[in-house]
Specification:
about 400 residues, 9-stranded mixed β-sheet, two-stranded antiparallel ribbon
Length: about 400
């Protein structure tokens, strides 16, 4: 037993002990990074899932230091950098990483987490109703992306409609707003397009609202109206996460068809209302070549920023580019880092620079096919963002045509 207690636990995560995530399809999860679910809100509320035998068993495995396949996204992030959602959440609760197993048992007792019957943190993806179709999105997270996939005959869910906030999802939102809840994290789709959620938040009583930090995810292309601004002020704290992956018109290509002027108007409105916000950035091979411009803008305006490395889809991982392009990205990132003052991001910048040292083009073919298909359909051109990629795509097109000709001869 003593040896077990002294074993270093490299995989402990606080999330399954305090959090529930409910996705658009109704699945209950421990966090937003887990891909598979064994629970559904039609049979089990988020709180019932929180107290289930399955959850208890998962927690037990984490406390034993097991490396679980469900946590693959964080494993990938930690392999490529010094950070992950797991590390961030542990840090938020003042829990150290890579400690002996017994340490985590003591911390749970100290924080009285083992006594919880309701989640402290609830993350709900309410519907896929959205005004954008970001390149790295999917059928379940954007109604516009879903519609495009249907037109291209590649949708995995051609007969589904995820754009309506279902009654059971509304019930799930209401059910997690308890006296124990400290964080309510709402996402879409585009959260500000959901009138039902607005009404639920307006009806949260003052006592509960005074304890809850509200987190809203938005793409910044819908300027919050007065009702939303009043909701933001009602809660103990409100944090609006604005998804921005590139500066100016480059963001229009990646988060299509976003309007930079609307993003700026949203920021201005939140500043006028004294509502806290941060710029949320997904680092992928779509923006790694121009992300230095975004970081420069963030630095100049002293905005808070959180960025993480894309794990899925695989073909959008940042290292899925030719080495010559990653070398250019490295030089640009190094130039930005010289003057970057946001301490929380400095280490991540170092990780990005290190990551660019080794290209991994395992999914290069998938990337090229996807970009060519989307650009043709949308009448866009990735060269507007990454002009240096043109020769590499042309080589791929020639190779593809040669294969087609050879297959036709057989």
């Amino acid at each position: 037993m003593k040896n077990m207690e002294n074993k270093i636990n490299k995989h402990f995560c606080i999330q399954p002990f305090v959090n529930t995530t409910t996705r658009i399809t109704g699945g209950n999860y421990f966090c937003c990074n887990i891909k598979r679910s064994t629970s559904d809100i039609k049979e089990e509320s988020p709180t019932e899932f929180f107290n289930s035998d399955y959850t208890a068993d998962f927690r037990k495995k984490l406390l034993e230091g097991q490396k679980l396949s469900e946590c693959g996204t964080c494993h990938y992030q930690e392999d490529k950098s010094s950070n992950s959602h797991r590390i961030e959440y542990n840090r938020y609760y003042n829990i150290l990483n890579d400690q002996p197993i017994e340490y985590y048992h003591k911390m749970l007792k100290k924080l009285r987490i083992s006594e919880l019957k309701n989640p402290l943190y609830s993350d709900l993806h309410i519907s896929n109703l959205c005004n954008l179709k970001c390149l790295s999105c999917n059928d379940k997270d954007s109604s516009k992306f879903h519609a495009e996939n249907k037109q291209l005959n590649i949708s995995r869910f051609p007969d589904e409609d995820f754009s309506v906030t279902k009654a059971e999802m509304l019930d799930a939102v209401r059910s997690v707003i308890t006296n124990d809840l400290l964080f309510l994290d709402l996402r879409g789709g585009e959260t500000l397009m959901a009138p039902e959620i607005k009404r639920i938040l307006q009806n949260v009583n003052e006592k509960q609202a005074s304890k809850i930090t509200l987190k809203i995810q938005t793409n910044g292309n819908i300027v919050p109206d007065e009702d939303w601004c009043n909701i933001f002020k009602k809660f103990k704290n409100t944090k609006v996460n604005i998804s921005v992956d590139a500066y100016g018109d480059h963001n229009h290509y990646i988060r299509h068809p976003s309007d930079w002027s609307k993003t700026l108007a949203t920021i201005e409105k939140l500043q006028q209302q004294n509502v806290k916000f941060l710029i949320n950035t997904v680092v992928s091979n779509l923006n790694i070549m121009v992300i230095d411009e975004l970081f420069q803008w963030i630095q100049e305006n002293n905005y808070l920023n959180y960025f993480y490395i894309m794990d899925w889809p695989l073909h959008y991982r940042p290292t899925n580019l030719p080495q010559s392009l990653l070398d250019i990205a490295t030089k640009r990132l190094q130039n930005v880092k010289m003057n970057f003052k946001i301490e929380t991001c400095n280490k991540k910048l170092e990780d990005l620079i290190t990551m660019c040292e080794i290209s991994d083009q395992t999914h290069w073919t998938s990337f090229c096919k996807e970009i060519i298909m989307r650009d043709n359909f949308r009448k866009n051109n990735i060269a507007d963002v990454i002009p240096e990629i043109t020769q590499h795509l042309e080589k791929f097109k020639i190779l593809l045509n040669n294969r087609k000709e050879n297959n036709a001869k057989i």
